[in-house]
Amino acid sequence: MADQRTLEEVRADIDAIDREIQALISRRAGCAQRVADIKLEQMQAASERGETPGEVVYYRPEREAQVLKRIMDRNEGPLAGETVAHIFREIMSACLALEKPLQVAYLGPEGTFTHAATIKHFGHAAIPVSQNTIDAVFARVESGECNYGVVPVENSTEGMVSHTLDNFMDSRLKISGEVEMPIVHHLLVAPGTEQMAVTKICAHQQALAQCRNWLDLHWPNTEREAVSSNGEAARLAAATPGVAAVAGDMAAELYGLEKLAEHIEDYADNTTRFLVVGRDEVPSSGRDKTSIIVSSRNKPGALYALLDPFRKAGVSLTRIDTRPSRTEKWAYVFFIEFEGHLQDDNIRAIVSELEEQSILLKPLGSYPRAVL
Ligand SMILES: C=C(O[C@@H]1C=C(C(=O)O)C=C[C@H]1O)C(=O)O
């Protein structure tokens, strides 16, 4: 039978449902607090037994990935699975922050896609801490000033991939997660700015490149200026009459800008990938990826030999990059990513086979595959 409720009745139902949701969220937060207490008790017990206590780890990336995956899988609509998962992302973030909000270093400034990726991964209850360079992100996490760090690694608008990879070579940090962000650009202006008044368009050079066809078509005669980041472009647009910025939603929100045009990127499915770095190894979530750095002797067939163990075991590679080794001329290191976890038997076997034929093998960590 069709829904016969009146507007008043539906609103009364919504109010009643909201009360239930709120009570359930509070109950959930109580459970998260109890989990935290148990973790603390276990740590104290270990310490009393004379075991090295370390610090209590409240944040569990593998557990969060499992929770989000289950939410997506059992979703029946009408909301999209991703939408529901975003809501739960925020609930988990708030529950975790009851203990202590996570401090997350990221490649800034504010309003960049890396900033947006940080919030996407950790939720709004974490504290994002802007850093000027990728090196500084690594340093803040290594020193313990921040719990985690977020850096761009692939096809980025604001960071050099190679720089991130170079950092891993010297760092003892582990990868604890990945974040994927669709790159969506808008033409942004200070509120009330007319199209006629725009005399200059600022953006990061990559953003200008990603929107070149659209800009050539619609703004062929307007000056374009490359600036240090999308966040900086947005800041300039907010502060300087006549300046428009090409940047994403995060920058638009942060600097209170209006959209003269939306979705101006030339290729719709442009995604940037970010890595989360931390000090701890992450246990298996059941849907993981692993990254390693390996360097082989410079002889014919070396790369083939490095990849053959993966083929034999039927393990999918998700990425492979080459970087010149800084210790030896004409030697190369490979940054390889594949499906599976370092604790899985087949992955262990591959890694020990690789160890035998390489000069250097450094596991960078296993981490849950991006859910959102
Ligand atoms: C509650 C826990 O701690 C944290 C909070 C979680 C949550 O709110 O669901 C999940 C994992 C942890 O980041 C846990 O370990 O289960």
What does this structure look like?
This protein has 12 helices and 14 strands. With about 375 residues, the protein is of the alpha/beta class. It has 4 domains: about 20-95, Chorismate Mutase Domain, subunit A (Up-down Bundle), CATH 1.20.59.10; about 100-185 and about 270-280, Periplasmic binding protein-like II (D-Maltodextrin-Binding Protein, domain 2, 3-Layer(aba) Sandwich), CATH 3.40.190.10; about 185-260, Periplasmic binding protein-like II (D-Maltodextrin-Binding Protein, domain 2), CATH 3.40.190.10; about 290-370, Alpha-Beta Plaits (2-Layer Sandwich). The strands form 3 sheets. Strands 2-1-3-10-4 form a 5-stranded mixed sheet, sandwiched between helices. Strands 7-6-8-5-9 form a 5-stranded mixed sheet. Helix 1 (about 5-50) crosses helix 3 (about 80-95), helix 2 (about 60-75) runs antiparallel to helix 3 (about 80-95) and helix 11 (about 300-315) packs antiparallel against helix 12. The two termini are about 35 Å apart. The mean pLDDT is about 90. The site of the ligand C=C(O[C@@H]1C=C(C(=O)O)C=C[C@H]1O)C(=O)O has 11 residues, from helix 1, helix 2 and helix 3.
